[in-house]
């Protein structure tokens, strides 16, 4: 990244809330640090970012975010190593993806310097909020939304870019069970599935509620055309292991190009694991579950890290996965978290010092 002269103004919180937080019992994304980054788009340009105390924001009722859902976000984590040094994982990839999402949602692209310098300055300022407990981390949520007003169904003329930080525990508690979807769709060709657009998540809530009522944690989305192929889950990309081969679906218009997914692919290849990036039919997975060759399924994502899947449901039938020693999921999780927490060599150059 270019050396920068950006000097981000900081208005410090008068009193820190940190003493009120139980760092031993953190849920995911429900408490927030003392500060946040704010950056406004007005008169055709992004204004320089500033850091202010974490607080509510005021918007016009006609702000276009409320009516037309023009909003995008990112997710990453900050980690503290045993010496107290702070690290991010591939943050430039999050920046690039944010602008891919921005383009698709007709939101003006953010300058790299505002994102990267803003991120670093904020994480440094609130670094004492990074949990030290294994499995916990500081979840970083950059997001952009249409704050400009008006009921005309067209892109807004004003936007806000914010970054908020949330010390967080694991995304899932307990075993993860997924339902392979055969009716609803998350995304379509030519649509916005590849963007991290807020509406992609809102659209999943109802089918996911139905799945939760049946005892599952997440839906595995299938292609919108015939529900024949496995795509991804609500908050993570999906990997299956059939025999010794690790398989994941190729990215497309309909699938989020996950940073964890591509890291897992690189690490798996480096480990000598046979890897295939190809379409995975539901019938292949069901058949493999029946004949015992389906050894593992797991989700990969920033929030989910690597989450082993204990079983899946399809057409009212439940399939359990075996518990295996030295699973790919545990090997890959160790490799990736060791890089993130600065416990191992970073041969791919993914770690980013804050
Ligand atoms: N797929 C969806 C729909 C997601 O929301 C996420 C989470 O960000 C992922 C996949 C995984 O992406 P990443 O590894 O970049 O966090
Ligand atoms: C992430 O993993 O960062 C995500 O954005 C998933 C989110 C739905 C919690």
TrEMBL record:
Broad enzyme group: transferase
Highest taxon above the source species: Bacteria
One GO term of the biological process aspect: amino acid biosynthetic process
Keywords: Amino-acid biosynthesis, Aminotransferase, Branched-chain amino acid biosynthesis, Pyridoxal phosphate, Transferase
Transferase keyword on record: yes
Co-factor requirement: pyridoxal 5'-phosphate
Enzyme Commission number, as recorded: 2.6.1.42
Modified positions (N6-(pyridoxal phosphate)lysine) in chain numbering: 196
A molecular-function term among this protein's GO annotations: branched-chain-amino-acid transaminase activity
Residue stretches spanning the membrane: none
Catalytic activity: L-leucine + 2-oxoglutarate = 4-methyl-2-oxopentanoate + L-glutamate; L-valine + 2-oxoglutarate = 3-methyl-2-oxobutanoate + L-glutamate; L-isoleucine + 2-oxoglutarate = (S)-3-methyl-2-oxopentanoate + L-glutamate
Pathway the protein contributes to: Amino-acid biosynthesis; L-leucine biosynthesis; L-leucine from 3-methyl-2-oxobutanoate: step 4/4; Amino-acid biosynthesis; L-isoleucine biosynthesis; L-isoleucine from 2-oxobutanoate: step 4/4; Amino-acid biosynthesis; L-valine biosynthesis; L-valine from pyruvate: step 4/4
Listed InterPro entries: Aminotrans_IV, Aminotrans_IV_CS, Aminotransferase-like, B_amino_transII, BCAT-like_C, BCAT-like_N, BCAT_family
Family from the record: Belongs to the class-IV pyridoxal-phosphate-dependent aminotransferase family.
Record's function text: Acts on leucine, isoleucine and valine.
Protein name per Swiss-Prot or TrEMBL: Branched-chain-amino-acid aminotransferase
Organism of provenance: Pelagihabitans pacificus
């Amino acid at each position: 990244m270019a050396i920068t002269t950006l000097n981000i103004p900081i208005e410090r919180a008068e009193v820190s809330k940190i003493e009120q937080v139980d760092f031993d019992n953190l849920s995911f994304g429900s408490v927030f640090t003392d500060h946040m980054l704010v950056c406004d788009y007005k008169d055709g340009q992004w204004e320089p970012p500033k850091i202010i105390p974490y607080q509510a924001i005021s918007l016009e009722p006609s702000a276009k975010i409320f009516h037309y859902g023009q909003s995008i976000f990112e997710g990453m984590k900050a980690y503290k190593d045993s010496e107290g040094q702070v690290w991010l994982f591939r943050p430039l990839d999050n920046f690039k993806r944010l602008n891919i999402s921005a383009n698709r949602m007709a939101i003006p692209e953010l300058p790299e310097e505002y994102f990267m310098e803003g991120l670093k300055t904020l994480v440094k300022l609130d670094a004492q909020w990074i949990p030290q407990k294994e499995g916990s981390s500081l979840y970083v949520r950059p997001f952009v939304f249409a704050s400009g007003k008006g009921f005309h169904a067209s892109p807004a003329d004003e936007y806000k870019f914010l970054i908020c930080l949330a010390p967080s525990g694991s995304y899932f508690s307990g075993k993860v069970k997924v339902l392979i979807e055969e009716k609803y769709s998350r995304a379509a060709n030519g649509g916005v599935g590849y963007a991290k657009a807020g509406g992609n998540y809102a659209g999943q809530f109802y089918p996911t509620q139905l799945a939760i009522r049946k005892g599952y944690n997440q839906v595995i989305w299938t292609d919108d055309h015939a529900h024949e192929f496995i795509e991804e889950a609500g908050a993570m990309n999906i990997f299956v292991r059939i025999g010794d081969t690790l398989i994941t679906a190729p990215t497309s218009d309909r699938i989020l190009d996950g940073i964890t997914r591509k890291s897992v692919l690189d690490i798996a290849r480096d480990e000598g694991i046979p890897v295939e990036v190809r379409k995975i039919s539901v019938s292949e997975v069901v058949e493999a579950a029946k004949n015992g060759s389906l050894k593992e399924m797991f989700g990969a994502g920033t929030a989910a890290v690597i989450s082993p899947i204990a079983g899946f449901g399809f057409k009212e039938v439940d399939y359990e996965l075996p518990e295996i020693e030295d699973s790919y999921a545990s090997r890959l999780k160790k490799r990736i978290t060791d890089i993130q927490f600065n416990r191992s060599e970073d041969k791919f150059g993914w770690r980013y010092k804050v």
